[in-house]
C-alpha cells in the first residue's frame, strides 16, 4: 500500500496523518513533513497512525529526528498505533519518549 | 549540509559518487550525504568495497578503493547517496597466499568488517542458513540516534554489587516464561520485576556479540535434535549485538532493542555487565571458514606458530593476537564503543589470561592490553573482571595483572566452598580466607576483597541444584561419550545419584543449597549467582550444556512456585547483604583502612578449631566501636557446621545491651528457615550456645532490643 502524509496546523499543534507502509523508501516524505512544520514552532506534534500498517526502522528514525528537531519542550503524541507499528515502538523503547494514545484529543 | 566542501564528491565509480574518506574511526560512519568506510590491513595489496542490497545473493556493486584512498595501511572512502537501511557491505582483500608466513589472503571471499556495528545473516534465531551464501555474515549500517534521555552507566560501587549471570535466550525461551517475545532482549525487559524482587543489581549477560549458532551445528546422536553453538562463546563480530536475540532482529532494530533493555535495567537500578570473548574468533583453525580476520590480515589478528599454524590457547582452534598493537586498538575501540554507545557498566573477559600473552604465546609480566584497559579514560568507571585462566594452562587467580582495577572470577572460592560443604578434610583454614574476601590471594599489590568475584556456580559446570544431586557429570546428551566437561566438580549427591523421591535426601539437598547461598552472600567480595540457582534449576547432571537449545539450559519458570522456599531464602539473604554494610567491605577487615573486625570462633567461642578434622567454623563481624559511645551497629554471627551431626556452638559475648536474634537456620524448614532483615526472632536473654544441625548453618544478629 502506498504511503501518504497529510499535514495541518491546528493552532499551536501540528497534526500529521500517516497512512500505508512507512519504510526506508518513503521515510524521506515523512521527514520532509517534519521539516516543513518545524519552523512554525508547534507546541505539540500529533501523529495519527491508525491507518499506518507498518513502520520500519527508517520510520522510527524519523520519529527520533522529529524529537530532536522539535526540541524537548515539544510533546509528541502518537495516536491510534496498533499491530506491528505499536510493536516497533514498544520494542525499541520509543514509547517512553512519546505519548501513546488510542485517540486524540 | 550537502553543500559542505569537505563532503563533496570528487570521484565516480559507475553511478556511485565517491570521495577519499577519513581513516578514523574504522568501520562505517554516517557523514553528510554518504557513508565513510574505513578498514586496515597490514599485508593486503588492494581492497574492494562490496555492496549488497539487503539479503540479495549477488553484490549490487564492487568499488575498488582507488590507490589515492589508501593512507598507510588504511583504506578509506566516502560513498554518497546510499540507502543506509537497505545496504549490506563487505570487503575483498588481495594479498599473498603463503600460510607458512602467516598469510591467507583469498580475494574470492567477501569479508565481514571487524568493526561492523550490525550484522545480517542470522537475524532469526535458529533459522537454518543458506549454506551456499557466499557472504553469510554481512555488515550493516546503523544510526547512533537512540533516545537515551538522561541515562548513563550507573557506577554502582563494586562492593555493593550482587551479580546475576544469565543467558539471554535461556532466561525466557521456556514456554513457562510467559513473555511476549521469548528468548530475546525484549523478553528480559519483561523479567525486570523478577530481578527487583530477587534483589540483584547487576546482570551479567553471557555473550551477546554477534555469533553464529550454526557454527559446528550437528544432529545430536542421541536425540536427533540440532546441537548449536548455543552459549555463543565464539565471536563473529565484536561491535554488533546478536541480532537473533532481538525480537526486532528481522527488522534490523536489534541495536535499539538492546539499548532499550539497558536503559530499562538502569531505570530500575540494575547494571549490565557483558561477558566478552576476545580470546578467539569464530573462524577456527586452518580448516575453519574465512569470514573476516583471516582474510583481512591473518598474520596480525592471530597468534601463529613459526610454521604458520594457529596457536590454540583458547581450546577453540585459534587465538586472537591481543597484544599486537593493531588488535589491542581494536579491543580498546570495541570496549569504548560498548561503554559509550550502549552504556555498559562492566565487562567480564572470557579466558582473560590469553589477553596477557605475547604474540609468541608467552605470558607477559606487564601486558600492554590489560594496562591500556585499566587506565583508559572512557572505561575508567567500568568494572573489569577477568576469568583469570586460559585453556593453555595459564592460571592466574590471585596474580592476574590488575593495575589496581581488575577483579577476578575467584575459581578458588568456588572450589574451596564446595569442598568444605561436602565435608572434605583440612578446609576450615581456607574457608576463613574465602569468607573474608580471600586476603591470601588479594591481600597484596593494593588489592582488596572487591578483587574477588565470589561464585559457587557459573555457566560452566553444575548448577547449584546439581552440585548436591550428582557425584559425577552426565554429559551423554552432548554426543561426546561423556568425555567433555570438567571432572573436578567437588560435588556430592547426598546419597542418591540424580533425582529421587526420598524426602530426606531432598531435604538435605535443599539445606546444602541454602548453606551455599548463605555463605556466598555473607562472604566479603562480590557475590555472583547463576541464573535459576535460586529456583533449584537442574541440567540433569550435565556440566557442559554449551550446545543445547532446550530445557537443559532454559529456565523453567514453574520452579518459581515449586521452589518458593529456596527463592525466598535467596531473596532474604540478598536483603541481609544490602542491609548491612559490614558485609560489603571495600577493605579487608583488620587492616588500617577498615573500621571493623572479623573474629573467628568454633564450637568454642573465641577458639576456632583449625585442625584437619574440623568441620565447624563460626565468624563474627562487628565494628570496633559497636556498643560503645552510642554506636549501635549490629553484630553479625555465622556458624557453619559441615559435620553430619548437630554441633553446639558456644556464643561469643556481645556488647552490653546487645542481644542475639535469629536470622537464618538452614536446618529448619520454611517459614522458620529465614526471616526478613530487621524482623529476626529474639532469642533467650541468657543464651550461651546454639545447637546447629548437621550440615547446616545459622546466622544470628546481635543488636540492642528496642
Keywords:
heterodimer; A: 105 residues; alpha/beta; Transcription Regulator spoIIAA; five-stranded mixed sheet; 3 helices; B: 706 residues; alpha+beta; Immunoglobulin-like; TIM Barrel; 3 domains; eight-stranded parallel barrel; six-stranded antiparallel sheet; 14 helices; 33 strands; 19% helix
Folded structure, characterized:
The complex is a heterodimer of chains A (105) and B (706). Chain A has 105 residues and is an alpha/beta fold. Chain A has helices spanning 27-37, 57-70, 83-91; strands at residues 4-10, 13-22, 44-55, 75-79, 99-101. Chain A has a five-stranded mixed sheet. In chain B, the strands form eight sheets. Chain B has an eight-stranded parallel β-barrel with strand order 14-15-20-21-22-23-24-25. Chain B starts with 10 loop residues before the first strand and ends with a strand. Chain B is α+β, with helices and mostly antiparallel strands and 706 residues long. Chain B has 14 helices and 33 strands. Chain B folds into three domains: 5-140, Immunoglobulins (Immunoglobulin-like, Sandwich); 158-583, TIM Barrel, CATH 3.20.20.80; 596-704, Sandwich (Immunoglobulin-like). The A-B interface holds A 23-25, 27, 56-58, 60-61, 64-65, 67-68, 88, 90-94, 96-97 and B 83-86, 143, 145-147, 149, 181, 186, 246-248, 251-253, 256-257, 259-260, 263-264.
CATH class of chain A: Alpha Beta
CATH secondary-structure class of the largest domain in chain B: Alpha Beta
Rounded to an integer, what's the Rg of chain A over CA atoms?
12 Å
Task: Give the class of chain A from helix and strand content and strand pairing.
Answer: alpha/beta
As a whole number of angstroms, the C-alpha radius of gyration of chain B is: 27 Å
Summed up, the domain count of chain B is: 3
Largest interface: A-B, 21 and 23 residues
Mean pLDDT of chain A: 89
Strand content range of chain B: 15-25%
Given as residue ranges, the uncertain stretches of chain A (5+ residues, pLDDT < 50) are none
Can you tell me the CATH architecture of the largest domain in chain B?
Alpha-Beta Barrel
